[in-house]
Amino acid sequence: QVQLVESGGGLVQPGESLRLSCAASGFTLDYYAIGWFRQAPGKEREGVSCISSSDGSTYYADSVKGRFTISRDNAKNTVYLQMNSLKPEDTAVYYCAAGWPTLWLQQYEYDYWGQGTQVTVSS
């Protein structure tokens, strides 16, 4: 089966941290760029972060830069998103995706998508 499975979401207070996981089966993540996207209620889905398949270069949206860190563990066929100093505006469903995008923000150039995991930041 070709699947991406996301986990690690939950309910946290502002300033706390979460670590999201994106585990692949049926294909090897090392061959793909992996992007994280999120969608809040009533909003369009937006890019959060990406890690390349070639040299491991990383990219971040301005809204999360300095707070979120994307990483890859090829031995586990898994990509992570460490989210620190969470804010209420980070509340969304978070999705991971795999593909060979020409630009990391071009979400429709990704081939495989996970089911999403809910992140809620509230006091």
Report what the structure shows.
This protein is mainly beta and 123 residues long. Helix content is 0%, strand content 50%. It has strands spanning 3-7, 10-12, 18-25, 33-39, 46-51, 58-60, 68-73, 78-83, 92-99, 110-113, 117-121. The strands form two sheets. Strands 2, 4, 5, 6, 9, 10 and 11 form a seven-stranded mixed sheet that branches. A hairpin with a 6-residue loop joins β4 (33-39) and β5 (46-51). The mean pLDDT is 95.
Explain the layout of strands and helices.
Elements: E1 3-7, E2 10-12, E3 18-25, E4 33-39, E5 46-51, E6 58-60, E7 68-73, E8 78-83, E9 92-99, E10 110-113, E11 117-121
Parallel strand pairs: 2-11
Antiparallel strand pairs: 1-3, 3-8, 4-5, 4-9, 5-6, 7-8, 9-10, 9-11
Range of helix content: under 10%
| Helix/strand order, N-terminal first | EEEEEEEEEEE
Strand segment count = 11
Give the CA-based shape.
globular
The DSSP helix count reads 0
Question: What radius of gyration results from the CA coordinates?
Answer: 13 Å
Structural class: mainly beta
Strand content: over 45%
**What's the rounded overall pLDDT mean?**
95
State the end-to-end distance.
40 Å
Can you summarize the main beta sheet?
7 strands, mixed
In terms of per-residue confidence, which ranges show pLDDT below 50 for 5 or more consecutive residues?
none
In short:
By secondary structure, this protein is mainly β. Helices cover 0% and strands 50% of the residues. Strands 2, 4, 5, 6, 9, 10 and 11 form a seven-stranded mixed β-sheet that branches. A four-stranded antiparallel β-sheet has the order 1-3-8-7, with no helix packed on it.
